[in-house]
Structure formats: C-alpha cells, structure tokens
Write a structure and sequence with these properties.
Rossmann fold, tRNA (guanine-N(7)-)-methyltransferase, 7 helices, SAM-dependent_MTases_sf, methyltransferase, alpha/beta, 7-stranded mixed sheet, about 210 residues
Length: about 210
C-alpha cells in the first residue's frame, strides 16, 4: 500500500478549497447492489467504523463522507483490497455535497440511516461556524431520508452533542427518541474514539432522531 499523504487534523470546511460540491460517482459501479438500504456516515475519518459495519452487515450498503482527501484515498484502497462491494467513500464537504451526491442515485435513494460521530468540536467561539451539523445539512438529510429513517449523533464532548441535537430539534421533520442521552449504540461496531472513551470510563453522549 502506498504511503498516505500528510493528513491535517483540522480542516476548515469554509475554505474556498471545499466550496465546490463533489462529483457523484456511478452508484451502480461502486456498489454491487445500489438498491440495498444505505447507511451514511458523515465525517467517517479513516473509515474503520463503516468498514467494520460493511463486513458484518452484508445486506446494507455503507457510504462514508470525509473532508480529508488522503484518508479517503487510503480507505478506498483498503476497500478494494477487501473486495467490499457494499462499501464506498467520497471525499467531499458534506454541507454542500450531500444533496447533489445522493440526488444522483439512479432510482430513489435508499438512504435509511445517517451517523455523525465525534465530529471536530472547533472549540473556539469564532470557529464554531465550521462545525459540521448546520441547519443546511439537517435540511439536506430531511429531504433525502424517508419517514422512519433515523439519524444517530454521538460525541464525547457534551457541548458538541447538545448543539447537534439543537440543530435537529429545530427542524420539524425530526423528533428525538426520548428526552435523555441514550446509554448504548445500536451498532455492532464502534469508532476508534468511542472505544477509547469507553475504555477510559468517560461518558459518550448519544441521541437518535427519527424522520417524521
């Protein structure tokens, strides 16, 4: 495997470099069966979570979106080596690419689940407009996901998860499951950050939003 290019820990999604939406692939070429139900992971990082999910759940497709291009390049190489026909990755800025990417599906997009896990917190007040969950992203998800589809949010930083929840609560298309944080993930795989946080005995803040 070729060496990975230098990866920045933080990438400013408002930079002009990420202003143009990503080009959609031919979904019939990247997925063996593009009409299987689709799980979308926004900000997938190295892709380990969706890779493990695709390995364990063969009757779903998994799509990871990531703004750091070298990570996507590496993830696609590993996908090809493992011959995972139900897994794909796209380098993009989710806030301006989600709608055009999934609207390009040859038939009705089979999106059923979305996960946004441990996103970059952008702690400084002046940088918080760079956080991934913005009203426009929530609206794009609402336009693409059907009734009873759902969105999974989690972070080890309470402030970040509260803000993500606020953005989804503001959109009348979604309702929150329960009033409190959920104690467990519904998935058989964990992100690296999730596993490390739990090993340290620290809390993970989790919430699920259902499309009405």
């Amino acid at each position: 495997m070729p060496p990975i290019r230098r990866v920045r820990q933080h990438v400013n999604p408002l930079s002009s470099k990420y202003a143009n939406p990503a080009d959609a692939p031919d979904w019939a070429e990247v997925f063996t069966n593009p009409q299987l139900p689709l799980h979308l992971d926004i900000g997938c990082g190295k892709g380990d979570f969706v890779r493990a999910m695709a390995e364990q759940i063969l009757d779903w497709n998994f799509l990871g979106l990531e703004i750091r291009e070298p990570l996507v390049e590496r993830a696609l190489i590993r996908r090809d080596q493992a011959q995972q026909g139900n897994l794909h990755f796209v380098f993009c800025n989710a806030n301006n690419s989600l709608q055009p990417l999934l609207a390009s599906w040859p038939e009705t997009c089979p999106l059923q689940r979305v996960s946004i896990q441990f996103p970059d917190p952008w702690f400084k007040k002046r940088h918080q407009k760079r956080r991934v969950v913005q009203p426009e992203l929530v609206m794009a998800i609402a336009n693409l996901i059907p009734s009873k589809g759902w969105v999974w949010l989690q972070s080890d930083i309470k402030e970040v998860c509260v803000e993500m929840c606020d953005r989804f609560t503001e959109n009348p298309a979604f309702s929150r499951e329960g009033a409190d944080w959920l104690s467990e993930s519904p998935f058989p795989a964990k992100t690296d950050r999730e596993a490390v946080t739990e090993e340290k005995g620290l809390p993970v803040y989790r919430a699920r939003y259902i499309r009405q």
